[in-house]
Amino acid sequence: MTTQTAISSGRLLLNADVLAALGCAALVLGGWLALQAGLIVPALAVLFAAYLVGGQGPAREGLETLLHERELDVDLLMIVAALGAAGLGLWQGEYHFILDGAILILIFAVSGALESYAMERTGRDIKSLMRLAPDQATVQRGGELARVAVADLAIGDRVLIRPGELVPTDARIVEGTSALNQAAITGESLPVDKGPGEVIYAGTLNGNGTLIAQVDQPPQSSLLQRVIRLVEQAQSEEPPSQRSIERFERLYARAVIAVALVLVLVPPVAGLWDWQTAIYRALIFLVVASPCALMAATMPALLSAIANGARNGVLFKNAAQVETLGRVRAVAFDKTGTLTVGQPQVTGIFAAAGETEQTVLRLAAALEAGSEHPIGKAIVDSATERAIAFPQASAVQARTGLGIAGQLPDGTAIRVGRLGFVLPDRPVEEALKAWSDEREAQGQTVIWVAADARLTGAVAVADRVRPEAKGAVEQLRRLGIEHIVMLSGDNLRAAQTIADSLGIKEVRAGLLPEDKVEAIRRLQKQYGIVAMVGDGINDAPALAQADVGIAMGGAGSDVALESADVVLMADRLEKLFDSLHLGRRARSVVRQNVAFALASVAVLLGANFAADLTLPLGVLGHEGSTLLVTLSGLRLLVGSRS
């Protein structure tokens, strides 16, 4: 059933659909009253006006489908049934048949308006996202502040964002600090503190700080606009099950017409029914056999799941992936940036005899202060956190794969890196060597520190496991996902250590991007439907190969939005459970809806032939089942674990 939207922002609008339903209702009531009073001619005039008012929309849509696509649809079947009832009433002088046809049109129109309301619910979250984008922004131009349309913002403009205002477009903070509420974009429940150099996103709510941010990309390229476009795309694409149902509908509609013709011709010729009964039963058959409920079994449920996800920081790229998520049997995780934070941190410091941990970290940070290497940054960050002051080294030279050397202002020569580089051919005290071996056995990287050719100590550095990672893995097991695999480009020892801490039994390490693709292929052959979770950058080929690619999108990185089928907008692994659970719920609801739709048709068909079902009751049963199926799909709009 195709209808125009009859609802906006939760309020009923007097548009064409609603006006048609209201007008048809008034005319049917007037026609019934006129028939009761014995005013036949006025009654017929009013009832036929009801046919025209309530039926012109479905008739137009049904004829367009017939003429342009050479296909029959349920709209046309309803109109044929109503006109058949009217013709039967005029032929036999049984004017209640004409009233029955008018009631059919009325219930069809009312059902269309109600279904339109139900379907509109699935788009409210996207509309709420659209409302997050302000129309105007305050810009610093020529030393003065000016209000301009957001669409007119140019790259390089500096935007003033006052406390409590919505951020008008993606921009980079140049002045000020504030806590921003990103819940509408990423689903994060707590505000995020941001300062100079950090990116803020359109539609997020500024806290109590005043910000000046520079526009680095056109407003139409903002994360908010991309999310809206992607979700609208997902809502417009039909999954395979819906396309199958639509193909079935075309064949089914032809079969319904053929059976209706048989019901009109065969029983009277065989002496089973008179012509009036045969035509009436055939008209009821047209109504109750129409697959409206079956057509509504899939898309409302999947669209509701998409809207639910968008509201809670899970972005589905298309409805087909919602269905596929419900059938996932194995989940493969990338390690770095997915199960781990992807940023190394200092995990331990061991000082040689006569030295202190502060001295070891001070010397290492002095050399690494100018380094861009992640390990060097971790050492400097650790020294800063501990409030350890360190001098600026000079004559710094890096040796790729070995370490870094330099000189302190007091002339002390410092080396930081591998043991063979820092202290070649020198013995290491037993306690320090044992500590180093233990850390390396855990998959950590040990960095040695020496001053004037004398060993000072060592620093252990490792990537940090996401705090929520272990809980996410356990949630998947509770969901029934038995096959959980880690794919990593790291060495086996480091990968195995992380896997053991998370309870993951299957580990495949030392993989290049193409190796991860092959690993996904093997998992698909072994287990069936496989989901791959990665950071959306070097995992893009594996994400594309998996049946469902799920990207840790941060606040929506470009690569993540492009390469994956599902994006976890806030980099929160617990959202993985939400997405899989939502996929299973959607699949379950669709199956329930299909079963109910088929059962409804069977019951109504039985009642037509065995219980003398009337046309109005047939219409009520048919349209009622369609509405119930639609409302059933909307159950997925509610419920979230976030």
From TrEMBL:
It holds the Pfam family Hydrolase. GO terms for molecular function: ATP binding; ATP hydrolysis activity; ATPase-coupled monoatomic cation transmembrane transporter activity; metal ion binding. Its main location: membrane. Residues 132-232 form the P-type ATPase A domain. InterPro entries: ATPase_P-typ_cyto_dom_N (IPR023299), ATPase_P-typ_P_site (IPR018303), ATPase_P-typ_TM_dom_sf (IPR023298), ATPase_P-typ_transduc_dom_A_sf (IPR008250), ATPase_P-type_domA (IPR059000), Cation_Transport_ATPase (IPR051949), HAD-like_sf (IPR036412), HAD_sf (IPR023214). One of its GO terms (cellular component) is plasma membrane. The chain crosses the membrane at residues 12-29, 35-53, 74-91, 97-118, 251-273, 279-303, 594-611. Keywords: ATP-binding, Cell membrane, Ion transport, Magnesium, Membrane, Metal-binding, Nucleotide-binding, Translocase, Transmembrane, Transmembrane helix, Transport. It is a multi-pass membrane protein. It is found in: Cell membrane. Belongs to the cation transport ATPase (P-type) (TC 3.A.3) family. Type IB subfamily. NCBIfam families: ATPase-IB_hvy (TIGR01525), ATPase_P-type (TIGR01494). This is Heavy metal translocating P-type ATPase. It comes from Gloeobacter kilaueensis (strain ATCC BAA-2537 / CCAP 1431/1 / ULC 316 / JS1). The lineage of its organism: Bacteria, Bacillati, Cyanobacteriota, Cyanophyceae, Gloeobacterales. The gene is zntA.
